[in-house]
Amino acid sequence: MVELLTHSRIAMRQTCPTKERLWYVERLRPREVSWALSIGTAWHTGLEVWQRGEADEDGAVAAGLATLDWIRPENDEEAYKLQLERIRTEVMIRFAIRHFKPRRLVAVEKQFEIPILNPATGRKSRKFRLSGKIDALCEDEDGNLWILENKTTASIEQFKQSYGMSQQLTLYVYAASRVFGRPIAGSVVRALQKSRMEPKHRNGEQVETWEDFRDRLLTEYEANPDKYLSEDEVVRTEEQIRQFENELWLETQERLWQAKTGITRHNTANCHQYGGCPFLPICLNVEGARESMFYLSTQQHDELSLNETA
Ligand code: SF4
After folding, report:
1. Which residue of 12, 14, 15, 19 sits with most ligand 1 atoms within 8 Å of its CB, as the best mutation to test the pocket?
2. Domain, as residue range, for 191
3. Mapping DSSP to helix (H, G, I), strand (E, B) and coil, where does residue 206 land?
4. Signal sequence: where (predicted)?
5. Do the domain assignments include residue 89?
């Protein structure tokens, strides 16, 4: 059976091969709500319907927030968190639609699936194909084709530091040039910074209505567009593309070797990064953890379904 390799899947294996196996092969998903994934989906959905011309600003907000409707808060804390994230997401979608530069779009949510080639021989991998979904592609006034990526980030300044080595941008430039059969000028990265603002509280009680908070948050964004929004052009050299193609082939060979040995490595340096790996109870063999803390996903690649997260 041919397996699809996406940026998210490759990146997860770089983080920890066991994590990638549990997520993509065993299809285990934590039962706990992943706010980052949920908000990313809402954000992308809102911008997608707007970029397709299917909705105006209000329609885009409604489409984005509808993706959060499945979340059923189990206590007051979760209900507060959900309402807070709904408003933050709404404000980000509205602000993006009002301030992103208009682009001449040639494709929206472009999904691709292409053979992975051995750079030395041109031979196709029989086991793996490269896949993904690009937010959009646009043309500049000279007819050059660009990848268009819409991102949210905790810090625009820190996010910009990732441009140079971003595997996702390299992979999309490489894949799009093969899909369209023409060079890709680079990537336009549109980023919006998330706000940490919350409704006003006094003595532990919320004293600002959600409507007033939404207005205050939007005012904060509108007053500081340079702080909250950036649009940058990121390019890749031929050498970077060649290096990526070599590493992509190596990725396939490492996976074949891993399957042959039947051994999946644990990257224990990652277990406690970024708030901790959700699969830690499984790796620690906590009794009953697999059944009580995880569910079996019907899909292998969430990133290829509705939306890929930022
Ligand atoms: S807990 Fe550690 S070893 Fe286990 S999947 Fe997560 S990162 Fe890998």
Report:
1. 19
2. 1-31+105-197+211-263+272-309
3. strand
4. none
5. yes
Is 204 inside any structural domain?
Answer: no
What whole-number distance in Å separates Cα of residue 150 and Cα of residue 74?
32
Ligand 1 in contact with 289 (CB < 6 A)? no
- Return the closest-CA partner of residue 221 out of 99, 50, 80: 99
| Mutation choice for ligand 1 from 16, 29, 284, CB with most ligand atoms inside 8 A | 16
Judged by DSSP in three states, 198 sits in coil
Terminal C-alpha separation, the chain: 29
* The pLDDT of residue 307: 42
Q: How many domains are there within the chain?
A: 2
**Could you give the CA distance from residue 107 to residue 235 in angstroms, rounded to a whole number?**
19
pTM for the full predicted model: 0.91
Residue 20 CA to ligand 1 center (angstroms) comes to: 9
CA 145 to ligand 1 centroid distance, Å: 39
- At 159, the amino acid letter reads F
d(CA 173, CA 189): 12
Q: How far apart are CA 43 and CA 307, in angstroms?
A: 9
For residue 286, the CA-to-ligand 1 centroid distance in Å is: 13
- Residue 67 tokens read as 């993706």
Atom of ligand 1 nearest to the CA of 273: 7
Which residue's alpha carbon is at the smallest distance from atom 3 of ligand 1? 266
Domain shared by 44 and 148, yes or no = no
Ligand 1 proximity of 280 Cβ (cutoff 6 Å) = yes
Q: Number of H helices and number of E strands within the chain?
A: 12, 10
- pLDDT, one tens digit per residue, over 247-303 is 999 999 999 999 999 999 999 999 999 889 999 999 999 999 999 999 999 888 877
